[in-house]
Amino acid sequence: MARALESATVKRALASSGRVGLFAAGKAAAGMARVALAHLGSRAPALIVLPCGHSARGLPRRAVAFAAHPEPNAASLRAGRRAVRFFRSFGREDTILCLLSGGASSLLAVPREGLTLAQKRRRIRELARTGAPIDALNRLRTKLSAIKGGRLGRSTAARLITLVLSDVPGDRASLVGSGPTVRGRRRDLVRVVGSNRSGLEAAAREARRIGLKPVLAPRRIAGEAARAGRRLARRAATLRPGSVLLAGGETTVSLKDATPGGRGGRCLELALGAAEEIHHDHPITLLAAGSDGLDGNSGAAGAFADGSTVPRARATGMEPAAALARHDTRRLFEALEDLFETEPTGTNVGDWVFLLRA
After folding, report:
1. For residue 295, is pLDDT > 70?
2. Rounded to whole angstroms, how far apart are CA atoms 22 and 48?
């Protein structure tokens, strides 16, 4: 964020504006907004929409709204309508600095005319249960919304500068948070300031610093989580000792056969799928975790696994294959004391998997 705000193009656009407003929404909104307010001044008119439970420390209380994630609720509807009023309050000589990150789709919810919030939620939930990827979910959210897909941006004559922290394949700004401010006008600026890949590159630098040889996976992880985990474990088995395979992206979980009340997430399923492929004498250890600190409904960011995971689980009376079939993986990793728990991290760039060959 600091680098983006110091770029010549952004500085020039802000300096030539009348009023400058700040709009931020998503899981990373608090951190992004703190940097921007330090740059703009704390008196800049602002609206910052955060997920319930996230810290608003250091932000002006009057500017903060809380809404629901992963499914929108009445607070999301209020936040969406407040965003429309905020955008309409700026004129052609003004600029709104828009800071978007994953999660904004749920936090801002104004259904299109003729559709209720309950109907919109039901249609998105039905698609999500099939294991649809994030870009497919965001396309449906845009279709059902009165503010997504640039429609919020079109409610104002002001110039828009949109800075994006990306959690989507290809880092297309128009898909992050369903792109409420990416409207395609000539005066506007749109920049991706961070992504899953930039996090992997930072992890590679850290791996080299501590004496490991990083190997970056050439493609984003995708598809059914457990199968992706098995593929990564097989790839890690071919590494030389002292190497670490770094992979990122976002897998899916089809919940058609989920156990009622079951708890888990795609990272936990990926870790357990990988554990099924790691032979007990292979010195491979992995961490699979969501960068936002919350994996599905597990309450954890992710989990650790290695060649002992499956035999230790069976020794406690749990069968890993059955836990995967029921989509109830938290109990298993909790019993093994292998959950990775961080609480919300204040960012969101998808998931990461690190596989170390000792």
Report:
1. yes
2. 8
DSSP 203: H
Nearest to 108 by CA among 133, 71, 140: 71
Distance of CA 246 to the CA centre of its chain: 18
CB 238 within 8 A of CB 277: no
Q: Determine how many CB atoms are found less than 10 A away from the CB of residue 297.
A: 13
Please name the residues in contact with 18: beta carbons below 8 A apart, sequence gap of 6 or more: 91, 93, 94, 95
SS3 176: helix
The alpha carbon of residue 204 and the mean position of all alpha carbons in its chain are separated, in whole angstroms, by 21
Q: Give Cβ neighbours of residue 315 (< 8 Å, ≥ 6 apart).
A: none
Q: Which residues contact 279 (CB under 8 A, 6 or more apart)?
A: 237, 307
**What CATH code would you report for 2-194?**
3.40.50.10180
Residue with token string 């407040």: 82
* Domain edges within the chain: 2-194, 197-357
Q: Can you give the pTM of this predicted structure?
A: 0.89
pLDDT digits (tens, 9 = 90+) for 92-143: 999 999 999 999 999 999 998 888 888 988 888 888 878 787 778 878 888 8
Pairing of strands 284-290, 302-306: antiparallel
**CA 179 from centroid of its chain's CA atoms:** 14
Q: What is the pLDDT of residue 58?
A: 93
Domain 197-357 is in which class? alpha beta
**298 SS3 class:** coil
Structure tokens at 48: 């910052």
Extract the tokens encoding 265: 């997430």
At 223, which amino acid appears?
G
Is the separation of the CB atoms in 151 and 124 below 8 Å?
A: no
198-248 pLDDT per residue, tens: 999 999 999 999 999 999 999 999 999 999 999 999 999 999 999 999 999
